[in-house]
Specification:
The complex is a heterodimer of chains A (77) and B (109).
Chain A: H1 5-15, E1 20-25, E2 32-38, H2 47-57, E3 68-74
Parallel strand pairs in A: 2-3
Antiparallel strand pairs in A: 1-2
Chain B: H1 3-13, E1 17-21, H2 31-43, E2 48-51, H3 56-66, E3 73-76, E4 79-82, H4 84-93, H5 95-102
Parallel strand pairs in B: 1-2
Antiparallel strand pairs in B: 1-3, 3-4
Classes of the chains: A alpha+beta (77), B alpha+beta (109).
Chain lengths: 77, 109
């Protein structure tokens, strides 16, 4: 079951309202995405914690419904 | 702590570097696992790999153990380091190389 890029972005922005989210459909198949998420909420947190915040926003879909999401996170500069 | 948690704890604490992956380093069964094998090979460190496809309990249990939803997962000295995205980023930034050097991990033979 694939997800749309918009649905992914909406979930992330709902949990991290200040975030800038860039989603790329890597294979054009609606199933392999990369996401770059920039949020001040990541400040001072290690990468694992930052990624966990995004996975939490996706509400358990990561690794299931959403099987391939390459994630990078950053704090706004 | 469940029996599976205890098994995973035993594995990650008795090896300096452990990679939980789909398939084996020689025959990875997933693009993300293949990518992290390439990184570890490039670093040239000795590591233990666990093929989660051969063990359903570990395949499910490792996700709860680290509270991390995906495989592959890398552990260094018992500590969860990250999955393929984080490993790639740390590798590109030189952080992974530094971490391995600081931990005195033996080179692969």
């Amino acid at each position: 079951m694939a997800m749309s890029a918009e649905a992914i972005e909406d979930l992330i922005r709902a949990a991290l309202p200040d975030s800038a989210v860039t989603i790329t459909d890597l294979a054009g198949d609606g199933d392999h995405y990369s996401a770059h998420v920039v949020s001040s909420a990541f400040a001072g947190k290690p990468r694992v914690a930052q990624h966990k915040m995004v996975y939490e926003a996706l509400g358990g879909r990561m690794g299931g419904e959403l099987h391939a999401l390459q994630l990078t996170t950053a704090v706004p500069t | 702590m469940s029996e599976t948690d205890a098994r995973i704890g035993e594995i990650v604490n008795s090896n300096d570097v452990v990679l939980f992956m789909k398939g084996t380093p020689l025959f990875p069964q997933c693009g993300f696992s293949s990518k992290v094998v390439a990184i570890l090979d490039h670093l040239g460190v000795a590591y233990e790999s666990v093929d989660v496809l051969q063990d359903q309990e570990i395949r499910t249990g490792i996700k709860t153990y680290s509270d991390w939803p995906t495989i592959p997962q890398l552990y260094l000295k018992g500590e969860f380091i990250g999955g393929s995205d984080i490993m790639m980023e740390m590798f590109e930034e030189g952080e992974l190389q530094q971490m391995v050097a600081d931990a005195n991990i033996p080179k692969a033979i």
